[in-house]
Amino acid sequence: MKTLHCRDAGFDCEAVVRADTEEEVLAQAAEHAQHVHGVTVTPELAIGMKSLIHDEA
């Protein structure tokens, strides 16, 4: 399982996105960023976010 913590992306937010693949995590994170934070995830931003995705322990 892959995870991305919203806080790691610089937001004061406790949300954690979990999915089986990096692509799914990025899609869910982009939706969260748009709806909750009003941020549109550009392709360049998505590349940077990939480094924040980790395997769940």
From TrEMBL:
It comes from the Bacteria. It holds the Pfam family DUF1059. This is DUF1059 domain-containing protein.
